[in-house]
Every structure is written in structure tokens, then in C-alpha cells.
Design a protein that fits this description.
Strand content: 5-15%
Structural class: alpha/beta
Distance between the termini: 56 Å
Largest sheet: 6 strands, mixed
Number of strands: 6
Number of domains: 2
Helix content: 40-55%
Order of helices and strands: HHEHEEHEEEHHHHHHH
Radius of gyration: 20 Å
Strand order of the largest sheet: 1-2-3-4-6-5
């Protein structure tokens, strides 16, 4: 029996909600709510960066999904859903936002023309677990980050900022009250619902939920969705193996499992190279690449040296 609603955390459904031109109001609402923008500061319109955001079905990204857009002022947003806590995830988030900032430059552009970038990341895991009493303050479910001068506390260098929504920290149950709680409830519970709950019965929340209704999927779309969910489960299993074994062979197994789950063929030579590698840093880099790479060659490519 088909579920009533699909999981909005999968690549296909996430982009179906927030990456479609006709559904821009949903993306605008999400950004305004997570960035806590009100009144004249609200985002009124966005433009999708279509060439960067769309991913062909055979290359669906399993653990990282994103939508990139810009507003009328030129400010850019990188909206990501992270469903698995792969090693180096914080570095990848910083890299994604920094790349969006740097890639604005063209041959005729100058530095003053660069616009701010905001990385908006929704995590299906705790990026900053609560530490308990007596330690440093816990990071809330919705957190915002920017540069701060360490002596005076003055804020500055705001060109790249970050917003995080950690779904496991949601604690409002079946009656979310704030708009942020409602988005967290939507992402966490949509696939478990049979009807539209009262908490999501208005505004962008109902509209977003309706987009996930499986009755609106074509047979081809349902097949893509199921394949993405199965591959995500395989990827999570690979991460579990790596953590349990805790050494090079476990990391090599995770890399191979990621590639297999994504339908990427691995030659005997490439498999032997992965299994023979003893460098933890190299294996960590390959694991991170295996999540989104289009081929095993992309995973194993040597890093280029700048300049």
C-alpha cells in the first residue's frame, strides 16, 4: 500500500517542492521563516539558478540535496537537505557556501560587486548534539552563524552566513505552534501522515504537503522516488559499517557501498585501489566525493593545486 505522502527529505521530492518555478512561494516562505525575516526585510521574490540546481534522474544525490537561488538584491541562497552525517559534513557545508560566493566572479566583475551568500541547511541528524548541564550552551534547533570579533563581540564580515535547522531537536510533538516548528514537523512527519493535520492545514505548509501527495505522482516519478529511498538506506548502512569497523577497511567498504547504491560501476582496478588505500585523509575525501560524484574517476581524482 502506497503512503499518502512522500518523504520531503529525498532529493526528488525536495526539488519537487522547492525547486520548481511554479512553486517559488514555498521556497520564499521557507527562507523568510528560517531566516526570521519580517516586514520590509522579507524576501519578495527569488530567481532559481536552474543550471546549478537540477540533477538528472540517473545521478540523484542521496545524502545531500540542494536548491540554489538569488533574490532581488543579488543575495544568494544555498538551501540544502542533509540526510546522513558523513565525515567532514561541516567542511562541505562551508565549501558549498564559499563556492557560491566565489563563483559570482566573472572576468569583468570586481570584488565590490560580490553579493552575500546564505547557506541554509536542514539536517536530519544532530550536527551539534546537546552536551548536558555544566558545559557550553547547547545549540538550538534553529541556529544562525556569522563572523564575530572575539574580544568585543562585534559582528562583521557578514558576506557568508549560515542557518541550520536540526530536525532531531524538534520537541513540539503533534501541535507545533511557531512557523519554524511547523517546517520541522513537516520535514519529520510528512511521510507518516494519512491526512493533512490541523497544524499544517494553512498557508505554505498545506501547499508543501500537497506537493508530496503520492497520488499526484506518475508511475515514473514513483519509481524514481522508491529508488532514491532504497539508495538512501544503502548509504546509511554503509556509514554504519564504517563507524562500527572504525578503520580503513570500513571506510573502503562505505565508499564502495555508496557507489553501488548510486548505480556507479567500479572497475576491478579502481576497487583494488580503494581497498588498498591506507591513508585516512584520502579515504575521508573519497567518502565525501562518493556521495555526489558522477563516476568512480571523479571520486579518485587527485586534488588540484591552486595557482
Amino acid at each position: 500500500m502506497f503512503p499518502t505522502f512522500a518523504d520531503p527529505k529525498t532529493d526528488f521530492v525536495f526539488k519537487r517542492i522547492f525547486g520548481a518555478e511554479e512553486r517559488k512561494p514555498l521556497l520564499i516562505a521557507l527562507l523568510n521563516h528560517l531566516l526570521e525575516l519580517e516586514g520590509s526585510h522579507c524576501i519578495r521574490d527569488v530567481q532559481h539558478l536552474s543550471l546549478e540546481q537540477h540533477v538528472a534522474v540517473p545521478e540523484l544525490k542521496l545524502s545531500i540535496v540542494d536548491v540554489k537561488c538569488t533574490d532581488a538584491s543579488g543575495r544568494r541562497f544555498v538551501v540544502e537537505m542533509q540526510v546522513a552525517k558523513v565525515e567532514g559534513i561541516e567542511k562541505r557545508i562551508v565549501y558549498n557556501a564559499s563556492k557560491a560566493y566565489v563563483m559570482q566572479l566573472r572576468s569583468a566583475d570586481t570584488y565590490p560587486g560580490l553579493c552575500d551568500v546564505v547557506g541554509v541547511t536542514i539536517c536530519d541528524f544532530e550536527l551539534w548534539p546537546d552536551r548536558g548541564q555544566g558545559s557550553s550552551p547547547d545549540v538550538p534547533m534553529l541556529s544562525r552563524w556569522r563572523m564575530q570579533e572575539q574580544h568585543s563581540g562585534a559582528l562583521g564580515l557578514s558576506q557568508v552566513q549560515y542557518v541550520f535547522l536540526e530536525l532531531p531537536k524538534y520537541a513540539a510533538g503533534d501541535e507545533p505552534q511557531t512557523v519554524v516548528d511547523k517546517w520541522a514537523y513537516f520535514f519529520r512527519e510528512a511521510r507518516n501522515l494519512d491526512v493533512v493535520p490541523l497544524a499544517l492545514s494553512e498557508g505554505p505548509f498545506r501547499d508543501a504537503l500537497e506537493v508530496t501527495r503520492t497520488a499526484t505522482f506518475t508511475p515514473e516519478e514513483w519509481e524514481v522516488y522508491e529508488r532514491a529511498k532504497m539508495a538512501e538506506q544503502d548509504a546509511r548502512g554503509a556509514l554504519t559499517v564504517a563507524r562500527q569497523e572504525g578503520h580503513e577497511s570500513g571506510k573502503a567498504a562505505a565508499i564502495l557501498a555508496f557507489l553501488a547504491a548510486r548505480g556507479i560501476s567500479v572497475s576491478a582496478e579502481a576497487r583494488a585501489r580503494i581497498e588498498a588505500c591506507k591513508s585516512p585523509a584520502t579515504l575521508d575525501r573519497w567518502i565525501l566525493r562518493a556521495v555526489t560524484a558522477a563516476s568512480v574517476e571523479d571520486v579518485l581524482a587527485e586534488p588540484t593545486n591552486p595557482g
